[in-house]
Fold this sequence. Notes:
Layout: H1 27-38, H2 48-51, H3 67-95, H4 97-121, H5 124-144, H6 147-153, H7 158-187, H8 195-216, H9 246-249, H10 253-274, H11 276-283, H12 290-318, H13 320-343, H14 347-376, H15 381-388, H16 390-412, H17 422-440, E1 451-453, E2 460-462
Antiparallel strand pairs: 1-2
Amino acid sequence: MEQAFTRGGFFSKERITAGPGFNRWMVPPAALAIHLCIGQAYAFSVFNKPMTQLLGISESAPSDWTIPQLGWIFSIAIVFLGLSAAFAGKWLEEVGPRKAMFVAASCFGGGFLVAALGLHLHQLWLVYFGYGVLGGIGLGIGYVSPVSTLIKWFPDRRGMATGMAIMGFGGGAMIASPLSLQLMNAFKSDTSMGVTETFVVLGIVYFIYMCIGALAVRIPAADWKPEGWTPPVQQNAMISRNHVHIDRAIKTPQFWLLWWALCLNVTAGIGVLGQASLMIQESFQGMITAAAAAGFVGLLSLANMSGRFLWSTVSDYMGRKRTYSTFFVLGTILYFLVPGMGTGGHVTLFVLFYLVILSMYGGGFSTVPAYLADLFGTRYVGGIHGRLLTAWSAAGVFGPVLVNYIRDYQLQMGIPRSDVYIYTMYVMAGLLVIGFICNMMIRPVAAQHHMEADNTAGAPIPVGAK
């Protein structure tokens, strides 16, 4: 077993380096297998109500867990997603995607099993540790592990390549939600809500499918390039042919400007995503039923998923900086227009505007790896991407807090429920203006941060580090 993790072993980069004639289109399905599994995180809310009745079964018992207590499970998972992506990114570049994917599968699948034990023993801390900590680590490593590989296989279509995989994270909930409900119904009995058994099955199934992705993944040889493709002679100033070391990248202004651009774009979208059902019902009181609101949430999920592929592909033609500028300009306009759609009773336009907003929310995630590759090169893009994802963790706190607290303050001031989101939308528009400014300030990385080849060892080192 030890040999498998050492140089030349089963999990080594040497073992998964593709030979001549390998079809690069075999790699996106491997990446998609990972992201479709970890995308289950967006469907975790289906367990909330059943987990409040684990003891009472028909209704919550006094010793059952509450929704606020359960809400921390998802929050912990997202925090550890960002932390693990940040800290494991550099390790990922050293060991390669197969080993990283296997570790992600072990943590994510194992997290379900540990959480199942916590459910069986009714120990909430075990659920926090299982799904939140272990599962969150699996989420983070699994999220970034295919990204740099895809970018290296598709230097001619970086945006499209990352969009194919990251689209799976947005769409994973569409599989996980009905699957989880069917499993809970199948296992439910007079003495069980079926949640524990469902966690066990999901943990095993996700581990197997993620391992299939790990087995299928390959990396290109160092000198490989697509047949018939040569880098354009007229190089885009925003696309570097040089590489920046991961430790050097986070010291550049470009990294932090892009960090804030992603954070602000996600903050605006995730705040709406978390309150979508309640928001549309309160904005159109008496017009929108709970069932219709659920349909609205489903449409937003589709927009989130499709936007990840659409916008990242568009960025191959528009450029990453212009694509992000589009997110901020169009998003600001739509956030200013949305309140008028609510007060005017224009349900169709209200829904349409939010579908576009959520498509750009998803597009921000899928476009940013290619943006990083353009700025910092491809050698350490997986690790740099991992560190940038801490912006997601921060936005996961900022967005919901802004929406929830502004709403509650408005209600305390006596504002009608149909109008409580007006000020919130204006705040979100203001955040996007700041994001636009950050994006416009991004320039090519200065040559002093680039790496050069060490003639004796053949390994890139930071310029000036000799």
